[in-house]
Amino acid sequence: MPPSPLPLGPASPEVAEIERALTRITYLSTRARAHERLMSLAGVPLDRAAVALLRQIADSDPMRPGELANRLGVEASHVTRQVQQLQKFGYVSRVPDPDDRRAQRIELTPAGQQAIDRVREAGVRGMQLALADWSSEELRQLAGLFHRMVDDFLAHANEAAEQETTEPARTG
């Protein structure tokens, strides 16, 4: 089923500028060179996909690979490959799922916690340098607005997903 159409009318100039800024931030933060520099500073030899998975594991309770894939919006096979890489470095381990002994969950090891702490610290140091001229109040406001925006994005995504599952299938 095709996605629901966008609301009628043009976007406000303010929303268009926010989208433009987010696109620029995303580009800057996902460039290969920026990632390599961050990994060098952190001393962690992982690619971007593995770091994204490591962050997700660090921010949650142990979960099944399929749950990780859903949270990251990727295919399960992608998570399987990344988990294997993270296991090779000793950053994650597989543990039995207490709800189903046949299944496994992925959890962070102490080495994995140290690695993600180093990645986050290196990222925070770089951000601190970039935002050094901002006041504490400006930083507080920005953080609050970013959290609010992410919460609203998630709520919108959940509403859209619910609509997709409750709307009857259209036939041509």
UniProtKB/TrEMBL annotation:
It comes from the Bacteria. Pfam families: MarR. Residues 15-151 form the HTH marR-type domain. InterPro entries: HTH_MarR-typ (IPR000835), MarR/SlyA-like (IPR039422), WH-like_DNA-bd_sf (IPR036388), WH_DNA-bd_sf (IPR036390). SMART domains: HTH_MARR. PROSITE patterns: HTH_MARR_2 (PS50995). This is MarR family winged helix-turn-helix transcriptional regulator. The lineage of its organism: Bacteria, Bacillati, Actinomycetota, Actinomycetes, Kitasatosporales.
